[in-house]
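thread: overnight batch results

M.L. [08:02]
morning all. the overnight job finished for the chain we discussed friday. pasting input first so we're all looking at the same thing
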Amino acid sequence: MKTTATKEAGSPTLVPKLRFPDFRGAGEWETKPLGKVAENLDNKRRPITSSDRAAGDVPYYGASGIVDYVEGYIFDEDLLCVSEDGANLVARTYPIAFPISGKTWVNNHAHVLRFENGCTQKFVEVYLNSIKLDDFITGMAQPKLNKAMLDRIPIPHTCVPEQQEIAECLSSVDELMAAQARKVDALKTHKKGLMQQLFPREGETQPRLRFPEFQNAEEWEEVALGDIAEIKLGKMLDKQKHTTGRLLPYLNNVSVRWNEVNTSNLPQMFFNDSELDRFGLRAGDVVVCEGGEPGRAAVWDGRLPDLKFQKAIHRVRFNVPFEPRLLVLHLENLAGTTQFEMLFTGGGIKHFTRETFAQLKIPLIPHAEQQRIATCLSSLDALITAETRKLEALKTHKKGLMQQLFPSPEANEG
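M.L. [08:03]
and the structure it wrote out:
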């Protein structure tokens, strides 16, 4: 069965750049609004407040998937849900279109769509999860995709067999991405668990796990960070006041990520001669976010000799033998704990001052053991980075496939 393409004279042709062999001579595609492709069942939705829900075994769906299990059901068939509201419509952290099957209950935060066949449903699910919907979303504080806008979304349309081929192809890539994402998450979980063993837990002074060569070594001590390191806050932003000196790049808290310093698109400002060393960075310095996500840290590798730092960054420079990577790992291990949160000041936007940061207790470990821990966890970081890059490569591959397998009117003009 082939879909007959209907288009006005002079309108661009709709032919994808890449087609499976069986469909290379199958003619043009057409575009239909989603409201013409699927039947909307929103009028059957019924929200239940958490206090009124009777516990059961029927999944209760919201904008992003299952939020509870309840008694009773509204639907008992294969359907497609599409998020109606929520930040994920813009962020796209997880799919906005997801299938439901069997006995289900859906609240008023997800649209419910019925299709004539499962192949078209899967095709539309893959397509919606792969395109931006900014032109159809209303609201700033609370993004919303209302029914009228949902119905208007243009869906490329071709015969059912070709839809099936495309859906199966892209679904296989999705499965590879999901498996790779699970691998990355497992490595991150492993690292977190290992850090909890290699560093003392909250309220404890000794680690629960030590490498064999250090099991009989002396116990660790705790010292205040300020006792073994110089902590320096960067230069106050003064772009409007000073326009002389050397115009140099500087780090802000956007530039510093966990275990990584991003030097692309660095901002610049003027530094006079007296500030060049005071706000300078050397290889081995630890740069730590003062606000935003206080404590996020990385070791500077010195690849830009003239790089400076501004007030949003603490520079930590040790005055005793101490492995800089160990401080970053220690901060990462502490993130989210009560011990760490107590160092923050401020209401809505948390930050920590040089004085409170200097009070942070850190383990004073024999230097050889410091290096052993840092090397172990850094090698795990390298593995996580490598596997994350594989995941990003799969995402890029899928995006490229989408651009090839779905026709673009602009690309076919002329």
